[in-house]
Structure prediction request, 203 residues.
Amino acid sequence: MKCPFCKETIDDDSYYCDQCGKELHFCPDCGKPKQGTTCPACGADLVSGTVFFLKKPQATQPLAAPSSPWPTNPATSYQPNPAPQAPPMPQGTAVQTPPMPQGTAVAAPPKPMPQFIQGNGWNLPLKEGVFGRTQGIYGEFSTQQYISGRHGQFRMMNGQWQVLDFGSTNGTFLNGQRLAPNNWYDLNLGDQLKIATTNFIIA
Prediction:
């Protein structure tokens, strides 16, 4: 594919352009990297490479049949000594599988970590700290009159992003539910976060 910034050809699974270093954002409908925050062709909101490749189905390649190390000509082929065979089990004999010890946990694969809050034409990196209209980590909020001056806070706790509302006037909403003041709530990829009247997606 081509980088929308420098127009150089790069790998199809790139998160960043290896020529100009720009972070790539993709149209989930067209499947192509674009500049800006929305696709000029279809109008869809662009998403980060993390979200795009997470949702994109991965093609599977059939495994090639292993080649035989022995000649295939029956007249010249060398047949190694056959491996000893175990004696057949009597019919009706059940094969016992040893039970797993109690309390043995099967480790789950790590889930992808959110990296951005996207919305209102912004793609803001998710970072720890207080946010609000008059102070905090996002100066962009200074134009949002319904966001409180000291509205809420993001933090990373034990490998999990969380959000808290300080009891703001217009509230903070996670997937349609208003957050109780001064309580921490987990954030996951794809969550809908509304800060006052401004809608975001966790990406």
Helices lie at 49-55. The chain has one helix and 13 strands. The domain at 114-202 is CATH 2.60.200.20 (Tumour Suppressor Smad4). The first strand starts at residue 25 and ends at 26.
